């Protein structure tokens, strides 16, 4: 090493020692960001996206000459593949779904008939897209579709025979013979909601199949065959109010929980029955005049149903728990102030606790509470909230042990992110220190519950340990001043990457990005000469290029990826001298 360079390197090392550990700059964390989408046409945007269950690929929609089409790309970056390239003409793709085995993608498009949306299936890595449905009548559509849990078959709803009459069909995910599952329908009859059983054997569906406007629950084999009516007509004449979530199959597949009403919407109650048929059991007690059940969840162990209802007093929403096979309904929430209500609730993954937000103590002040799914003592989870403040959003960690929430807790004007054990205890402020004059919100716990990603305003994304203890680190990439990040960011199933959309590079052009979210910056990034160990030679490479314009020949010296070579790059390498690349 030349004496001048050796001296300069010694000076840098001395400064690094004096200064102590150098914090990881935002630009270094951001340098792990990878743009996933292809080069977009003028005026185009990335629309929706979905990560495959195995975490290997991202499927997304993007406009081509103003028409949304479908693409697939490796989650860590690579060459995007257009999945709609083989259909006869550029069709509008309004939605899609990835199979549970991550092998194929379903999508709807009006490619073969401009005024009808057909259903297609294509390998996730690209190839020939196969139309799954038979030719539809004019102005008819496939309106709903689902993969079987093993990904082998597809069940879909379409007005496939008569325009405006939705019926149920089944077909192999790779295409083939289409089988109608429901029996002949009466005039004006049609099929509504449907679900596939977890054993891939049967389909449960709601339809006014016997008489128009009398909706019953039916069961049929996924490949067709005899249709059995499951719902007992005794309770309410078989009328089932199939709104957004009319029934759910319990996780163990043994029971069906569903709403039933008098057909006018003025009376809606909650019922349970075996998934193979049998007596229908009402879960709620008699409701007051005007009372009704509004929403419910089944515990993960399939033992209980938690529901929100006007059960004690009309127009007062409270929370209750009942055994899934029927029994005593237990009130979960504490006593409510006048005009107080339970707003929302979530059951933790272990099925032991329910978290809910309610203006339980002060009218119009939403606060967060936890209670055993069996009932008992109610624990307030949040600390004091600001006057006229309250809880914003909340998420339960996947392990079921903590609650992450946002609020202007205390005398603050901006929302902050907090973490608290689900059974109550110390409340930890996560976005500390905060970004001045910016709300922090949309907390998203990682799949392993170890970290939380949250958004500051509509701008940047940060990660922080779920239990706190260290300052937040920005994970989203650098953006132009006018840029923003969309709210639909998501973890890969293994939690190692985060995928998000935003106009980071060009104003009003939304693109797709992926970042290694575990926070581990590869040591290879600091091994500039690639010899397997971080050494003075790596620092020397940077030092001799400080001030140079970044180009193909010296790009490795721009360690923090901020577009310039400076002493920060050298310092980052110097601190890691002696470490071997894993």
Task: Give a structural overview.
- By secondary structure, the chain is mainly beta.
- Mean pLDDT is 87; it is low at 11-29, 234-239 and 241-245.
Task: Please describe the structure with a list of short key phrases separated by commas or semicolons.
582 residues; 4 helices; 7% helix; 35% strand; globular
- Assembly context of the chains: single chain
- First CA to last CA: what distance? 27 Å
Structural class call reads: mainly beta
What percent of residues adopt helix (DSSP H or I)? under 10%
Largest sheet: 4 strands, antiparallel
TL;DR?
The chain has 582 residues and is mostly beta strands. A four-stranded antiparallel β-sheet has the order 1-40-39-38, with no helix packed on it. The chain has a four-stranded antiparallel β-sheet with strand order 2-3-4-5, with no helix packed on it. A four-stranded antiparallel β-sheet has the order 6-7-8-9, with no helix packed on it.
